[in-house]
Amino acid sequence: QVQLVESGGGLVQAGGSLRLSCAGSGSIFSWIFMGWYRQAPGKQRELVATISNAKNNYADSVKDRFIIARNYGSNTVYLHMNSLKPEDTAIYYCTYGGQYWGQGTQVTVSS
User: Fold this and answer.
1) How far is 25 from 82, CA to CA, in rounded Å?
2) Could you tell me if 80 and 70 are in contact, meaning their C-beta atoms sit under 8 angstroms apart?
3) Parallel, antiparallel, or unpaired for β 90-96 and 46-52?
4) Which positions ≥6 away from 22 have C-beta within 8 Å?
5) Which residues pair with 76 in a beta bridge?
6) Can you give the pLDDT of all 111 residues of the chain as single tens digits?
7) Using CA atoms, how far apart are residues 94 and 34, in angstroms rounded to an integer?
8) Do residues 3 and 27 touch, judged by C-beta distance below 8 A?
9) Phi and psi torsions of 102, nearest 5°
């Protein structure tokens, strides 16, 4: 069983930065990806970024603005979000392998 607890969301002005954290507990393996998805109102949940064994994968919409990092010792994954845009507004969900999900954290970017 795996549990994921997110933190770090909030309200920020366009162009600002936020850092999301997701602390995992339970049976977590480095070769299984951890990452972030997001869901905006009225839209489907979409990939933001994933990381496994230090290999990163980003959605085109966040490349060059967001950075994903993972602490394999503490099973924590981070999402450093820079140059935020209003269209980044969404609930951000942490995932382990696409099977386990956190409760979500709201990110709101004002114009």
Assistant:
1) 27
2) no
3) unpaired
4) 4, 5, 6, 7, 34, 36, 76, 77, 78, 79, 94, 102
5) 23, 71
6) 999 999 999 999 999 999 999 999 999 999 999 999 999 999 999 999 999 987 899 999 999 999 999 999 999 999 999 999 999 999 999 999 999 999 999 999 999
7) 7
8) no
9) -80, 180
pLDDT at 87: 97
First-last CA distance in the chain: 40
- pLDDT, residue 53, reads 87
Burial letters 47-69, b for 16+ CB under 10 A, else e: bbbbbbeeebebeeebeeebbbe
Q: How many CB atoms within 10 Å of residue 105? A: 23
